[in-house]
From TrEMBL:
Region feature Disordered, mapped onto this chain: 180-241
Domain YdbS-like PH: 80-145
Keywords: Membrane, Transmembrane, Transmembrane helix
Superkingdom to which the source organism belongs: Bacteria
Residue intervals passing through the bilayer: 35-54, 60-78
Pfam families recorded: bPH_2 (PF03703)
Organism: Antribacter soli
This protein's name: PH domain-containing protein
Length: 241
């Protein structure tokens, strides 16, 4: 089971917007600091109403107002549970809403610039925000705030979409040229052109009646005569000499 499949199985909200064919770089909820305002408002209202009702019992009606703030905090918490920022190998996706759920995404190849910022409160509590600029006119995914572990998320986005992939060096073929064509070659014999044949004309003398010429002597060359003296054969009776 891949990481993408396991993440989708654990979170039903992501299965609506993330395809199983996509590879999830990371998927995170917003930082809990996004609930600090309704949480502080509800806590402060509780202390105030409790103090006033102890002093004046007729002010118990104020608990109704505090109940409204408590319900508001519950809705904010349920809404926060459904807020996701998902980065895949193809898209940037922001999911919002509990009762009115929506998903916004932009293709990665259309993102031209990204700005990463950690406000003072974010440096204290550990969250950051990202601003994306796309090539289109309508920047539907401009600001994504309250992202936990922002430094790690920033490095993951940069590594996945903004740094060029390292190219593997292809093996190089080395051609070795030898002196003689009879030797072996690892990549096939090179083109070999035999040397040009230089011919020298040889004079041909037609034969004539000169005996030395018939014997193969060239005109003007030395001539040699041969003579042979045979000894007389002995006379044999009944035979011939």
């Amino acid at each position: 089971m891949t990481d993408t499949t396991s993440i989708l199985l654990r979170n039903s909200a992501l299965r609506r917007y993330v395809s199983a064919k996509e590879k999830i770089v990371f998927a995170t909820r917003r930082h809990w600091a996004r609930l600090w305002e309704p949480a502080l408002s509800t806590a402060a209202a509780f202390v105030a109403v409790a103090w006033m009702t102890v002093a004046v019992e007729e002010l118990a009606i104020l608990w109704v107002a505090w109940g409204v703030l408590a319900v508001r905090l519950l809705i904010k918490w349920l809404d926060w549970r459904q807020q996701w920022f998902v980065v895949t190998n193809k898209r940037l996706i922001v999911i919002d809403g509990f009762m009115d759920q929506s998903g916004t995404f932009v293709q990665v190849d259309k993102v031209t610039d990204m700005q990463y910022r950690r406000p003072p409160l974010g440096q204290l509590l550990g969250f950051g925000e990202f601003r994306f600029e796309s090539a289109g006119q309508d920047e539907v995914l401009n600001l994504v705030d309250y992202i936990p572990e922002p430094d790690e998320r920033y490095r993951q986005i940069i590594a996945a979409h903004f740094l060029p992939a390292e190219k593997k060096e292809e093996p190089k073929t080395i051609f070795v040229v030898h002196d003689g064509p009879q030797r072996g070659y690892p990549a096939g014999p090179p083109s070999y052109e035999p040397p040009a044949t230089v011919t020298q004309p040889i004079p041909v003398v037609p034969p004539h009646d000169d005996p030395p010429a018939r014997r193969g002597h060239l005109p003007g060359g030395p001539t040699t005569s041969y003579s042979e003296t045979r000894p007389p054969r002995p006379f044999l009776e009944g035979g011939e000499r």
